[in-house]
Every structure is written in structure tokens, then in C-alpha cells.
């Protein structure tokens, strides 16, 4: 079968009996125009390996291959999808490889086997809970620059808005800071619930995220996570009170970081959180 002979996705779903299962968080994208628009978000992928988690019946996968991705490595948990994806692989001359398993448990380096000249771009329409867990895993790598060059991921609209949120908004919080400390994140596309089969209860949005130089390379991620966690545990309280759970004097810490004691977590910039983490590390060791 060639690329042009691949049957429409609805036919694939019927013939391989891929009726969407709730337990796998399955909401499929069947409109190839839409998936091709998504596949174009990361830019030129001709020399890249694209890592797609959860290809399902292969709509987005086909789009990535049609848009010229060098190769696609997919990881799918639902074994019913594997034979359907094998046909896609055949139609695209083996540029698609599929691993059957749980993306939360695999070693990505081993799976991807990227050559030094192949950039890795992650493009996925994932179940929302798995997406958030993987995003945090990919954002909290100990070493930066990360092994991936960009992330293009579907999220529930509210979660997407939290990832890109600016200080002073109600969406701003832990996820915004983890995402923006050493990358830039933007909403690349809004996707209405009706675009999925079956439609989920909420609207979605696609986040495109690219790594940047960290605001401060010297701090440890765990200090930043700790400071942010304490500050946002009581987001409306003043920092001098919400930071009490840390092992250092909050007033001394805030003075050292040149942040007002009366400031509230939701108004503190990402750069100031990084500063807080740095001062926390210095005070802790004295
Ligand atoms: N990418 C397809 C599309 O856009 O039509 C399917 C999207 S559907 C929302 C999510 C897919 O992720 C399903 O095929 C599901 O089986 C798969 N999946 C769910 N949890 C997974 C996991 N932990 N590891 C790998 N795949 C998973």
C-alpha cells in the first residue's frame, strides 16, 4: 500500500475495531487538514526524529510523515492500534517505527537512538493526565540543554493557559514557572472539543515549547521546585508567611532576594523565583 492508498481514518477505525476507549484516554483527531496544521508547528522536520506518544489510529502520525518528518518513532500503549500503524509504516517506506508500551515507563534515549545530527522534536496528542506527567518529566531534566529541541503537545485549554501564564494572573503558578524558567512556551493553536472523535468535555490547545538558556544556570532545580511549592501552597498569603515551611528565615530570605515581604506568590516573576531559589541555597548552607 502506498501513501495515497491508505484508507481514511474512519475506515481504519472500523476495520481494526479501534473504537475509542476511555481507559486509554482516547479522543482521536480524524481531520487530516487539522493534523497537518499541527505537524507544521515545529517547523522543518526533514532532518529530525519526531517522537510521538500515543499515535492511536495514526492521524497525526500520517500528517507528520506527509509534512516530511525524517522519521517518526511512536510509542503506543493500546495494542489494538499496532497493526493499523504497521500499514502506515509500510506506506511511508518504514519512516515510522512503533513501540508498544507505556510512555511513562520507557527510556527515551534507548528508544529513539537519535544520531548526533538528528534533532529530536516531540509532537503528541496525549491523554491530558499523561501529557502533564510527561511535560513535567521533560521540563525537570537535571541537565539543560535537554535531549529534545521542541515540544508540541495537546493539553486541556486550562492547563495550556497555566503553562504560558504571566505573573499577576490567576493561571500563573508552578507549571508556568517550571515551563518558563528555561524555555519559552506559547499557545500555538486552539482546538475545539468538536474536533475530536469522540469529543471530550473541554476545549483543548496546543502548546509549543522551546528550550532556552536558563535564567540562572547555577541553581538546583529542586531548590526552585521547593520555593515555588511553598509559595503557592497558599497563593494569596504574603510570602513572609507562606515561605515559613522552608528551613530558613523567610524574612531574611526575602530581604536577600530583594523581594517585598508582603508580596504574594502570584505576583512574583519567574526571574524573582529563581533569585529566591538561589538565595535559599546560600542561606541554607550557612
Ligand atoms: N494521536 C492520536 C490522535 O491524535 O488521533 C490519538 C490521541 S488519543 C488522545 C491518546 C493516545 O495515547 C491513545 O491512542 C492512547 O492509547 C495512547 N496512550 C494513552 N496513555 C499512553 C501511555 N501511557 N503511553 C503510550 N500511549 C498512551
Automatic annotation (TrEMBL):
GO CC terms, sorted: cytosol
Predominant subcellular localization, coarse grouping: cytoplasm
EC number: 2.1.1.182
Keyword Nuclease assigned: no
Enzyme class: transferase
Any Pfam family hit: RrnaAD
This protein's UniProt keywords: Cytoplasm, Methyltransferase, RNA-binding, rRNA processing, S-adenosyl-L-methionine, Transferase
A GO molecular function held by the record: 16S rRNA (adenine(1518)-N(6)/adenine(1519)-N(6))-dimethyltransferase activity
InterPro entries: KsgA/Erm, rRNA_Ade_diMease-like_C, rRNA_Ade_Mease_Trfase_CS, rRNA_Ade_methylase_Trfase_N, rRNA_adenine_dimethylase, SAM-dependent_MTases_sf
Source superkingdom: Bacteria
Gene3D superfamilies xref list: Ribosomal RNA adenine dimethylase-like, domain 2, Vaccinia Virus protein VP39
Catalytic reaction annotation: adenosine(1518)/adenosine(1519) in 16S rRNA + 4 S-adenosyl-L-methionine = N(6)-dimethyladenosine(1518)/N(6)-dimethyladenosine(1519) in 16S rRNA + 4 S-adenosyl-L-homocysteine + 4 H(+)
Binding site for S-adenosyl-L-methionine: 27, 29, 54, 76, 102, 125
Biological function: Specifically dimethylates two adjacent adenosines (A1518 and A1519) in the loop of a conserved hairpin near the 3'-end of 16S rRNA in the 30S particle. May play a critical role in biogenesis of 30S subunits.
Name of the protein in its database record: Ribosomal RNA small subunit methyltransferase A
Species of provenance: Temperatibacter marinus
Amino acid at each position: 500500500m502506498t501513501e495515497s492508498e491508505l484508507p481514511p481514518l474512519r475506515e481504519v477505525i472500523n476495520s481494526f475495531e479501534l473504537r475509542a476507549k476511555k481507559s486509554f484516554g482516547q479522543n482521536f483527531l480524524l481531520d487530516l487538514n487539522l493534523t497537518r496544521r499541527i505537524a507544521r508547528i515545529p517547523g522543518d522536520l526533514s532532518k529530525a526524529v519526531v517522537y510521538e506518544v500515543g499515535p492511536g489510529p495514526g492521524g497525526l502520525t500520517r500528517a507528520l510523515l506527509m509534512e516530511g518528518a525524517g522519521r517518526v518513532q511512536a510509542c503506543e500503549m493500546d495494542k489494538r492500534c499496532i497493526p493499523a500503524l504497521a500499514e502506515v509504516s509500510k506506506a511511508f517506506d518504514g519512516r515510522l517505527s512503533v513501540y508498544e508500551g507505556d510512555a511513562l515507563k520507557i527510556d527515551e534515549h534507548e528508544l529513539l537512538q537519535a544520531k548526533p545530527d538528528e534533532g529530536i522534536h516531540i509532537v503528541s496528542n496525549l491523554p491530558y493526565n499523561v501529557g502533564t506527567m510527561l511535560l513535567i518529566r521533560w521540563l525537570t531534566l537535571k541537565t539543560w540543554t535537554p535531549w529534545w529541541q521542541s515540544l508540541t503537545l495537546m493539553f486541556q485549554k486550562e492547563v495550556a493557559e497555566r503553562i504560558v501564564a504571566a505573573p499577576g494572573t490567576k493561571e500563573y503558578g508552578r507549571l508556568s514557572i517550571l515551563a518558563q524558567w528555561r524555555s519559552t512556551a506559547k499557545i500555538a493553536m486552539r482546538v475545539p472539543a468538536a474536533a475530536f472523535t469522540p469529543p471530550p468535555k473541554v476545549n483543548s490547545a496546543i502548546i509549543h515549547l522551546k528550550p532556552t538558556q536558563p535564567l540562572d544556570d547555577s541553581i538546583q532545580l529542586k531548590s526552585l521546585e521547593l520555593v515555588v511549592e511553598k509559595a503557592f501552597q497558599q497563593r494569596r498569603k504574603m510570602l513572609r508567611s507562606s515561605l515559613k515551611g522552608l528551613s530558613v528565615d523567610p524574612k531574611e530570605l526575602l530581604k536577600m532576594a530583594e523581594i517585598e515581604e508582603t508580596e504574594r506568590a502570584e505576583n512574583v516573576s519567574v526571574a524573582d523565583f529563581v533569585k529566591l531559589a538561589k538565595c535559599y541555597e546560600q542561606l541554607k548552607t550557612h
